[in-house]
Amino acid sequence: MNLLVLVKHVPDTETRVKVKPDGLGLDLADANWVMNPYDEFAVEEALQLKEKLGGEVTVVTVGGKESEKTLRTALAMGADKAVLCDDPAFEGGDAMTTARVLAAAARKVPFDLILAGKHGVGDDNQQVGSLVAELLGIPAVTVVTGLEVNGSDLTLKREIEGGTEVVAVKTPAVVTCQKGLNEPRYPSLKGIMAAKKKEVATWKAADLGLDPASVGAAGAAFELRKMELPPPRPAGKILAGELPDQVKELVKLLREEAKAI
Amino acid sequence: MKVLVFVEQRGGKIKKASLEALSAGRQIADGTSGSLAAVLLGQGIGALALEPAKYGADTVYVGDDALFAAYSADAYGLAAGKAAQAFGADALLFAGTAMGKDLAPRVTARLGIGLLSDVTAFTLDGGVPVFTRPIYAGKAFATLTPKAGKPFGVTLRPNVFPVQEKAGAGQVVALDHGVTPGDVKAVVKEILTAEGGLLDVAEANIIVSGGRGMKGPENFKILEELAQALGGAVGASRAAVDSGWIDHSHQVGQTGKVVSPTLYIACGISGAIQHLAGMSSSKVIVAINKDPEAPIFKVASYGIVGDLFEVVPLLTQAVKELKAKG
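Predict the joint structure of the above. Result:
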């Protein structure tokens, strides 16, 4: 089974964000950039499927040269091939323009199954996996916490409010991965050394047959008006006194002042 | 602007988040001299067809078919796309529920239009909708506007927009959906309900959350009791989930669910930045923690510095007494 994994290079979740002086973007210069946490589940699942069924694992991302770090992480975990879709025309895009690039890349890589994280932390769109599926004309099953393969039949568990849906689908398909699906491995020293020797292919818009007007800022559907930090929360009350009295006071405040209960 | 709202029903009941989306859609339609339509899919849902009109729908496209008995992104995506085309929609609104988040990108990709996820506020600027959405799980907010003249989609965060009753013309139209059994590639075989049928944090108005201070899985029982007394859901921090004390579906934070309930009670949660990002837009926050220096107190509306194992049972008792009084 050949597996294609969509990954993204993102600031880690400890990042404190700052708004740029022009108010039209974030200053993330101090951030520690890593593989999107949900993509780790996708890479791990791909590696487990390859170990069970054979085939090849290819990882692909859209981003600048710095995104190679995340591709190297995936290679060190055990992925076979990596593709960096890097072109100035891709900059300033949104989920849809990113999906156009990834779908074009997918057409050049033989795959049975595409795996991706359920969402990319940061932009928090939770769109790309589904968009790629629709662009490729194949089904998508999102927010998956369980996956079983039997030939070309997949049985998946996906998280919904207050429960789980059990879904059956045939390959080719896109599956987006949620925490709980597996425990991602850490790259071994041997894996890290091997990854250094593996080649990362770079594909540009022309290599992918993409019209530059359909990708990046030119292809994006929305314009950013401003970026801001959330307003600080008003100072709260720290209660005092004996605990039982504090609890009584709290219930009174929640009912009468906050009208929350 | 012609606004189409996807109205979600499960088990013959329309989701509150969809009523919120209809109310928001009505406002956008009114502010742009437009009209509002709804698309409702399911099987045996005829009785629900007039419901969206109470919240402003002028037209209700109804797809009542065995193919829509269970949710399927394939069938629902095709049908919602057909409704958008039939109506000539300029804007598509979805509630940002599990179904909405799964469905919206399938529909917008099919229509070749853009999609803005998880919108928490909007205004109208000279007839142009301007949307605000959190990014980095709420560490920052982006305000965006659709490029001129281009149709677009948005998903709206549940529990943020008010439900407003306002009668629409309510013309019911049987949707010519054109979906065939062969279109349904991913098939829902069954739905397993979570243990105890507890409310999901994403839908709850009140959340009682536990962190590292809970010390073990057995202690979440006291949070369940408080949540039950309040009619809320139980949440958890990443520390509690990663320790294996509670299922990930309860996790609140940047790698869990981002929530905006009326009341969030954080018990034994220190307030790591990735947790704060996921809950600090809650209307009222209560922090219960032994450590007076815990960062959670910086975002709390009310704080009790004390042992949660003493405070929580007292609080449950006090809430029960209050509810008994009515």
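Residues 37-53 of chain A form the longest helix (17 residues).
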